[in-house]
Amino acid sequence: GLLKVDCLALGMLTVIRKAMAYISKTQGKSEADRLTLARIPREDPATYAMLSTGDAVGVFQVESRAQMAMLPRLKPRCFYDLVIEVAIVRPGPIQGDMVHPYLERRADPSQVRYPSPDLETVLKRTLGVPIFQEQVMQIAIVAAGFTPGEADQLRRAMAAWKRRGGLEPFRDKLMAGMSRRGYSADFAERIFSQIKGFGDYGFPESHAASFALLTYFSAWLKCHHPAAFACGLLNSQPMGFYAPAQIVNDVKRHGVQVWPVDVRFSAWDSELALDRNGHQGVRLGLRMIKGLNEIAGEQLVQARECSAFRSVQDLVERARLDRGQVRALADGGALKGLAGHRGRARWEALAARRQGDLLADCEIREERVTIRPPDRQDTMLDDYASTGLSLNHHPAALIRPQLSRNLKRAREFAQIPNDSRIQAVGLVTHRQRPGTASGVVFLSLEDETGIINVVVWPKLLERYRKEVLESQLLRVAGTLQNANGTQHLIARHLVCEDGRLERLSSRSRDFH
Fold first, then answer.
1. Using CA atoms, how far apart are residues 297 and 304, in angstroms rounded to an integer?
2. Cα 41–Cα 47–Cα 49 angle in degrees, nearest 5
């Protein structure tokens, strides 16, 4: 007798709200003219062109590895294409072998076929291929003779079949009903396979359309306001598929300037800022610094609003920061603007005294010590340790000279012929083993130029399980698949390069 209500909280709603607020604020628009969802232009060609290249980092529902691979094949050109895109990369259509037939018919409309005139009305909008839950129920009614009540029972069984084993009776009725009406056993089996897939996770068309609306809004923001969209993502963490490092690297690849955390300019959140030419960029916020809480960050901002900081000591006194908070700022490079470089900032952070300290009012004279600035290797390691990302250096770039000259970068993949044997290296950012992939593992590696998609077949996984599951930095030799606007490296040989990262880190620890 209980009523169950599911409330789905979507972080992307927060991202979109924040991004639109940033845009309206920087454009100086009045409350009546501020950007809202209703004012986002519909069916924007540039947005669809961006998605059709698989450029979807951070975009709602289509940022996964599988969706990014599907986008260049489906090439969405209108909103309903996004509805299809959201729904088609699901266990139901995949297990029912509906994905490839749909893509083939989309590429060549002459291949569109309907099992019967009755089913054309059910399947016309999806080119003769059932993709949505509603279509499966309609097929059961039209092609197998189910009553509407029986079709609703089928819908309920789809969600509960693993717990109750309630789909087999429907299979017999479905097969018998289709056979009586002249449908092939193969078509009936594929429909039943899809029904079982929907038992795992299938989308009603209305659900897919609701999600596709957020897909479009987030894609439009990424396309036309990449800096604001990146700020929205960074300030809504944790959420989504990508960590702040991947979000920052992606927006930089789109030509957006990103400035580091700096106590002279940064707010708690990452914000939009303008370069000398008036172009929008992103100023990283104090929230990026590990070990610094929001209260300390707000104290710092409030003290700065009164007057600019003159030195590290001035900041410590007026912002009322303790030694741990000052050290966190120094480690994160946020004091470089006051101290000159990170090494000097650490030294001054150790010497800084707060008001109320026993020696706060004493003048201590000391000889200024010469501290060399850290090199790019130390800078990178400190950046990753404190903020989880580096604006200037990438581990793959530093280690690349130590490896083979034949290593290819991610940005080069699109120009390399299909079936070429190549090698690449990158940080492991994602590992996926979908239930519909028959044991195949998909890896995402990041080098200094972009994302490398790696496919590891089950037999290779048996041989390289440790490298696949535990490596932070991975070198891959394999065969490049370059087709339909997407590139995948089919692995043949995997080498864990974590030892090189550890040697970089140990050198940095020796210095400090």
1. 11
2. 140
Q: What angle do CA 181, 186, 190 make, to 5 degrees?
A: 100
- Do 359 and 353 form a contact (C-beta atoms < 8 A)? yes
Nearest to 396 by CA among 446, 351, 441, 331: 446
Furthest C-alpha separation in the chain:
99
Q: Using CA atoms in the order 83, 159, 64, 61, what is the torsion angle rounded to 10 degrees?
A: 40
Tokens of 436: 């519909």
By the 8 A CB rule, do 146 and 177 touch?
A: yes
Phi, psi for residue 128 in degrees, rounded to 5: 85, 5
Over the Cα atoms of the chain, what is R_g?
Answer: 28
Give the Cα separation of 419 and 341 in Å (integer).
47
pLDDT in tens, 487-502: 999 999 999 998 887 7
Output the DSSP codes for 337-376: HHHSSHHHHHHHHHH---TTSTTTTS----PPPP-PPP-H
Helix (H/G/I), strand (E/B), else coil: 443:
strand
Taking a C-beta distance cutoff of 8 angstroms, is the pair 83, 209 a contact? yes
Q: Which residues pair with 41 in a beta bridge?
A: none
Percentage, residues of the chain above pLDDT 90:
46
Give the tokens for residue 206: 């209305």
Q: How far, in Å, CA of 247 to CA of 389, rounded? A: 10
Report whether 284 contacts 260 (CB < 8 A): yes
Q: What type of residue is 416?
A: I
54 and 210 Cβ atoms separated by less than 8 Å? no
- Residue 169, both tokens: 């009776």
> Cβ(425)–Cβ(412) under 8 Å?
no
For residue 410, CA distances in Å to 13, 363, 405, 451 come to 31, 56, 15, 6
Preceding amide of 238 cis, omega within 30? yes
Q: Are 263 and 315 in contact (CB under 8 A)?
A: yes
92-96, 447-451, 459-463: which has the minimum mean pLDDT?
92-96
Say if residue 261's pLDDT is above 90.
yes
Give the pLDDT confidence score for residue 274 in this predicted structure: 87
Residue 70 has pLDDT above 80, yes or no: yes
Distance between CA atoms of residues 58 and 236, nearest Å: 12
State which amino acid sits at residue 90. Answer: R
Question: Residue 391 carries which side chain, given as an amino acid letter?
Answer: L
DSSP state for residue 28 in the 8-state scheme = T
481's enclosing H/E stretch is strand 473-483
DSSP, collapsed to helix, strand or coil, labels residue 168 as helix
- pLDDT for 384-418, tens place per residue? 888 888 888 888 888 888 887 789 999 999 999 99
**If you write DSSP's letter for every residue of 254-292 in order, what string do you get?**
TT--EEPP-TTT--SS-EEEE-TTS-EEEE--GGGSTT-
The residue among 88 and 213 whose pLDDT is bigger is: 213
- Torsion 171-173-179-182 (CA) sign: negative
